[in-house]
């Protein structure tokens, strides 16, 4: 994990300018959406396209919900992360305040989807963004909108200033495999 100072110093560099079509740098190497060093991550590859961003993405078995169908949370993760590239183009850091996803059709494991996002409007610190997820027949399977709020770059230091943190936090006692499956349900019953 890069230390917070390095991450903050890189913000301006990562924010561009980026030419149309350019591959955009990941938020950081262990980011769940786009970090290449996160073994649980989506490894999203995001390009600038005009005033928006685009990624072609294949969800895999790690992201399954119902058999063969991508978990809705995984879809939301990728959408949120893609939205998180728009601040590079806006030129100021911003974080998600509200995220809405309309799941129109099942998103399937092992299928390539094109995900496109753009800024729809701005109002003071509010950046309104929207995205579509389409299959290669150009059928829209999900749409999303979000409200991002611009922050100063120190926001990340204030709230996440752990440098060199363990990538695998210790498992809390409550979550360990105790062989007592079903106990919670019994207690509730
Ligand atoms: C190093 C770079 C790394 C980047 C990684 C990107 C990863 C992908 C994106 C993410 O996942 S970001 C992580 C998830 N999001 C967060 O952790 C944010 C948590 N929330 C906060 O930290 C604060 O709530 C936040 C900084 C967003 C806002 O707090 P503030 O106290 O600064 O602002 P405030 O609550 O006053 O809201 C600002 C304005 O937005 C308005 N607002 C809030 N929610 C709204 C909403 N839902 N719709 C419309 N407007 C809204 C609010 O009314 C207000 O309007 P006015 O300025 O006109 O008064």
UniProtKB/TrEMBL annotation:
Signal peptide: none annotated. It catalyses: (9Z)-octadecenoyl-CoA + H2O = (9Z)-octadecenoate + CoA + H(+); hexadecanoyl-CoA + H2O = hexadecanoate + CoA + H(+); decanoyl-CoA + H2O = decanoate + CoA + H(+); dodecanoyl-CoA + H2O = dodecanoate + CoA + H(+). Its EC number is 3.1.2.2. GO terms for molecular function: hydrolase activity. InterPro entries: HotDog_dom_sf, THEM4/THEM5_acyl-CoA_thioest, Thioestr_dom. It is a peripheral membrane protein. It is found in: Cell projection, Ruffle membrane; Cytoplasm; Membrane. Residues 68-141 form the Thioesterase domain. Residues 172-183 have a biased composition (Basic and acidic residues). Keywords: Apoptosis, Cell membrane, Cell projection, Cytoplasm, Fatty acid metabolism, Hydrolase, Lipid metabolism, Membrane, Transit peptide. One of its GO terms (biological process) is fatty acid metabolic process. It is an enzyme of class 3 (hydrolase). Residues 159-189 are annotated as: Disordered. Pfam families: 4HBT. The keyword Cytoplasm applies. One of its GO terms (cellular component) is membrane. It comes from the Bacteria. PANTHER family: ACYL-COENZYME A THIOESTERASE THEM4. Belongs to the THEM4/THEM5 thioesterase family. This is Acyl-coenzyme A thioesterase THEM4. It comes from Cellulomonas fimi.
């Amino acid at each position: 994990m890069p230390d917070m100072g390095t991450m903050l110093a890189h913000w301006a560099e990562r924010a561009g300018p980026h030419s149309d079509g350019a591959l955009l740098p990941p938020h950081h190497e262990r980011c769940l959406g786009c970090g290449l060093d996160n073994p649980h991550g989506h490894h999203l590859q995001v390009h600038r396209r005009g005033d928006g961003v685009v990624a072609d993405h294949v969800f895999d078995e790690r992201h399954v919900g119902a058999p063969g169908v991508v978990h809705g949370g995984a879809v939301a993760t990728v959408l949120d992360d893609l939205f998180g590239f728009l601040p590079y183009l806006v030129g100021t850091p911003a974080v998600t305040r509200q995220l809405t996803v309309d799941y129109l059709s099942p998103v399937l494991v092992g299928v390539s989807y094109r995900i496109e996002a753009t800024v729809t409007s701005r109002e003071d610190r509010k950046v309104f963004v929207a995205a579509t997820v389409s299959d290669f027949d150009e059928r829209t399977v999900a749409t999303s909108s979000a409200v991002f709020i611009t922050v100063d770059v120190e926001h990340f230091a204030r709230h996440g200033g752990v440098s060199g943190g363990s990538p695998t936090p210790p498992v809390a006692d409550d979550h360990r495999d105790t062989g007592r499956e079903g106990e919670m349900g019994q207690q509730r019953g």
